[in-house]
Structure formats: structure tokens, C-alpha cells
Amino acid sequence: MPRSSLALLLPLLLLGACGAVGSRAVVQNTGPDELLKLRAGPGLGYSVILGLPDGTELERRHCVTEVGQLWCRVALADAPSVTGYVSEDYLSDG
């Protein structure tokens, strides 16, 4: 595959791995008594906005890769003005 084709295909593959933009997602696998941290930016160095328990419904806005980790910008389904980034590892398709 030519290098230019690969460069065009890679962003589409990353979006596919993240789920459709605007799609529903549900927090999963945080563990007992643990919360998924909603962060101000895509990475562990950003401040925590709030903690999300398993079962929290979200809307995916877009996803980015930072330091080998896929982070998705999300909004709370019940409060769309509350937005931030979460690790894609803890999301399932809603």
C-alpha cells in the first residue's frame, strides 16, 4: 500500500476503533468502588473534572491518541454541557 494511502486510512481506522462520533457510550469495568476520571484534556496530566461510575451514559464527541492511549472527548448524556476526556479503555458502545 502506498504511504499516502496509509496516511489517509489511519485516521479512519482510529475513528472506527473509537466508535462513531456522536454515538452513545457507557462507562464499564472501572472496578468496585472506583470511578472513571473525566479529565479536562486527553491525558493523565490534565485535572479531574469528576468521577463517573460504571453505567454512566455518555455521548462521544471525538477521540485522539496521546502517548499511545486513545482518549475520547465525551459529554454526559443527562447533562450535555458537562464535557471532558476519558480513556477509551473504559467505554462500551451504548
Automatic annotation (TrEMBL):
Keyword Signal tagged: yes
SH3b domain residues: 36-92
Signal sequence, renumbered to the chain: 1-19
UniProt key word Secreted: no
Pfam families: SH3_3 (PF08239)
Entry superkingdom: Bacteria
Keywords: Signal
Protein name: SH3 domain-containing protein
Upper taxonomic lineage: Bacteria, Pseudomonadati, Pseudomonadota, Alphaproteobacteria, Rhodobacterales
